[in-house]
Design a protein that fits this description.
CATH architecture of the largest domain: 2-Layer Sandwich
Shape: globular
CATH topology of the largest domain: Yope Regulator, Chain: A
Distance between the termini: 53 Å
Largest sheet: 6 strands, antiparallel
Structural class: alpha+beta
CATH class of the largest domain: Alpha Beta
Radius of gyration: 20 Å
Helix content: 40-55%
Strand order of the largest sheet: 1-2-3-4-6-5
Length: about 250
């Protein structure tokens, strides 16, 4: 376990505190915070005494307990949103305890994967609000899955494996460079998409970016500027993308 903890410290450049809670269980104090300023709750457990290479990342129920202070999962639609977040993140849930089995070789990536899932869950109220407010993403999904099959669409892609919080709504394969599609229906999604584009560009990944707005005229001017500065092509409405998206992608891929 000591060698594992040294690896974790190295990966975080020493900016981490480690507390042994009891035999085989260690709490990590990471410089990663929830929106309210609290640090994430994350523990490492040696779940295979016969092998020091196998361990488990878990939260001992702290994530869902924290969520319950402001948001109740009390309907099938909310349960479906939670399960979608967990499935997309590769995280398991046993009676409220979130966990991820991993190894020494993958420990850093697994920690970031786990933390990304925790942060998405704590933002579930935003997911629910947007689901009620708009069917934009459902309509976008339906169009991509029914009309863009030739582009081999892949949903919820994380191009930076060491940074799983950066997620692309859809990746399309049609040329030497993939197309990264982002749906935008409010200023928060616009900011997140702009940040994702900046990180992907910083990593010098080859790609062509496309933003599909629910209605660009409802987006504040500052967010419009952020996206215009950092993306390759924008469609002002979903209807505009439906009418012109395929031809535009083929032209950009030529």
């Amino acid at each position: 376990m000591d060698s594992l903890l040294n690896i974790i410290k190295d990966n975080f450049n020493g900016k981490i505190d480690i507390y042994k809670r009891r035999e085989g269980i260690t709490q990590l104090i990471l410089p990663i915070f929830y929106e309210d300023g609290d640090m994430v709750d994350i523990f490492i457990k040696n779940n295979c005494p016969d092998s020091e290479n196998r361990m488990q990342i878990l939260d001992y129920g702290m994530t869902l307990m924290k969520l319950s202070y402001t948001y109740d999962i009390n309907s099938p639609s909310k349960e479906r949103i939670l399960n979608t977040i967990l499935n997309q993140s590769g995280i398991s849930n046993h009676e409220g305890n979130l966990y991820l089995d991993t190894s020494i070789e993958s420990i850093y990536q697994s920690i970031m994967q786990f933390v990304g899932c925790q942060q998405k869950i704590l933002n579930m109220r935003l997911w629910q609000r947007e689901t009620i407010k708009s069917l934009f993403f459902e309509k976008l999904d339906d169009f991509i899955e029914s009309h863009l099959k030739n582009f081999i669409p892949t949903k919820s892609v994380t191009p930076l494996k060491d940074y799983p919080i950066i997620e692309v709504d859809y990746s399309l394969e049609f040329s030497k460079k993939p197309f990264y599609l982002f749906g935008v229906n409010n200023k928060d999604k616009a900011k997140n998409s702009a940040i994702a584009l900046l990180e992907l560009q910083k990593a010098k990944l080859p790609f062509i970016s496309i933003i599909i707005h629910e209605n660009i005229q409802e987006l504040p001017s500052k967010e419009q500027v952020y996206l215009t500065q950092n993306c390759d092509k924008q469609f002002p409405t979903l209807e505009n993308f439906k009418d012109n998206g395929i031809a535009t992608i083929e032209r950009l891929a030529a």
